[in-house]
Amino acid sequence: MENLQKKYGFWTATAMVVGIVIGSGVFFKADDVLKASGGNLTTALLAWLIGGSIMIVTAYVFSLIATRIERVNGVVDYFEEAYGEKAGYMVAWFLTFIYYPTLVAVLAWVSANYTVGLLGLEHGVWAISAIYLTGFFLLNFFSPVLAGKWQVTATVVKLIPLALVAVVGGFAGLTTGQTLENFTTTAQTISSGGGGLAVATLSTAFAYEGWIIATVINAELKDAKRTLPKALVVGTIFVALIYMLYYLGISGVLTNEQVLAEGDGAPVKVISLIFNQFGGTLLTVFVIISCLGTLNGLIMGCARGMFAIASRNLGPAPATFRKVNPTTNSTTHSALLGFVMSCIWLVVWFGNFEGWWGQFMDISELPIAFLYVIYISIYLWVMKTFTDLGFFSRFVCPTLAGAGSLYIIWGAIQKDMFTHFLVLTLVILGSGVLLMNKKSE
Questions:
Q1: What percent of the chain clears pLDDT 70, i.e. is strictly above it?
Q2: Which residues contact 372 (CB under 8 A, 6 or more apart)?
Q3: pLDDT of residue 432 exceeding 60
Q4: SS3 for 86-141, per residue?
Q5: Given 41, 149, 194, 300, which residue has the most CB atoms within 10 angstroms?
Q6: Secondary structure in 3-state letters for 317-356
Q7: Chain-centroid distance, C-alpha 406
Q8: Residues in a beta bridge with 426
Q9: pLDDT tens per residue across span 66-123
Q10: Helix, strand, coil proportions of the chain in percent (round to 5)?
Q11: What are phi and psi of 23, to 5 degrees?
Q12: Distance, C-alpha 321 to centroid of its chain
């Protein structure tokens, strides 16, 4: 099998954790979380706290596994070690054909949405989505090293608007009393409950999702058994802290009613009010860079999806999909398949807004809930197998992570078209079973 070079270090791995997680969800899910919370800021903040806690304890459990296993593709390797080659293959199939490309499609759209708003365009969001999606796949195809450097740069840039909103908005809210008012006044524009805490937490799950994708560059990390665990823990703790402060910053500038009225544009509105129109425009550029940083990180995972399958000599045409470009050291054919699947899911996302499905199939959240089913299986394996760990690490942390996963899954079950997405997922996984055939070398 052709090998990927050890070209990434701790900062690239940490930048993938922070950079993939922070980038879009914190911006365009702010109103969704508040809406699901029935317009109640306390409930919304509790949802952000629960979501962040689930992410941190989950990442900690995975960090324990990462110190022991270093192969080709993190979570796939872990599941394979726990339940065998065929089980690992099915996880890789789910990631390759559902998880990675759905999130890539949504992130391309989110990035384009803010770009259209910045440029003052009425149309063009879908064309720009396609341009972003194609452009970053080409970047990862022709220069994986440059893509890694972009990940670090974008991570630093994207922290600027978050930090400014958190500090300036938080201070303003305390001095004007706006934050306290939001805690005591529930938005009246929501007549019903909005979904409740579980659904609100599911919305935060999208904003907190992505850190696991850092494990896909496991085989390309220098001293991966030390580098990856540190990146997972440090990165997720930092993300949870900055999210909570950022959300408080928004509540210090806008009322709950205004957050709901502005929708996805709430962060941009906050930035404009704090820093005037020019400052708002400049920082909106940072928001776009933030989203593109997340998109790039997701594509780094998406481009390696089929490679993880083929490296095990499984699936269709493994000799083709495990090829590594000798010049760029990129996963050539695997990246091409990832691009095609992302385009297909972008069409599905487009169909939501055109009313093709009758209801809204939220591919920004549902695939994440399905991934948590996989996580639960891994937690059970850790408790059974890692006998050298202390009681807290072996039992308490996996149990807490499992409880958090069940809570996320419960929120997903209450979403529109959950059953439809479940059937679609089973069909795709079924096709994976039919194409599993192990080829002899």
A1: 87
A2: 205, 405, 406, 408, 409
A3: yes
A4: HHHHHHHHHHHHHHHHHHHHHHHHHHHHHHHHHHCCCCCHHHHHHHHHHHHHHHHH
A5: 300
A6: CHHHHCCCCCCCCCCHHHHHHHHHHHHHHHHHHHHHHHCC
A7: 18
A8: none
A9: 777 766 556 788 888 899 999 999 999 999 999 999 999 999 998 998 899 888 887 8
A10: 80, 0, 20
A11: 170, -35
A12: 25
Pick the CATH number of 10-371+407-434 from 4.10.410.60, 1.20.1740.10, 3.40.50.720, 1.10.260.40: 1.20.1740.10
335 Cβ partners below 8 Å, 6+ apart? 137, 140, 141, 302, 303, 304
Q: Model-level pTM?
A: 0.78
Burial of 326 (0-12, 13-18, 19+ CB in 10 A): exposed
- CA dist 315 and 90 (Å) reads 10
CB 235 within 8 A of CB 21: yes
Nearest to 144 by CA among 334, 290, 337: 334
The reported pLDDT for the residue numbered 276 is 72
Most confident by average pLDDT, 131-145, 186-200, 380-394:
380-394
d(CA 92, CA 59): 19
Q: Is the Cβ–Cβ distance between 402 and 379 less than 8 Å?
A: yes
User: Which pLDDT belongs to residue 71?
Assistant: 61
Question: 103 with 367: CB under 8 angstroms?
Answer: yes
Neighbours of 388 (CB within 10 A): 8
| Confidence band of 4 (pLDDT split at 50, 70, 90) | low
Q: In residues, how long is the chain?
A: 441
Looking at this protein, which amino acid is placed at residue 234?
V
Instruction: Tell how far CA 328 is from the center of its chain.
Output: 26
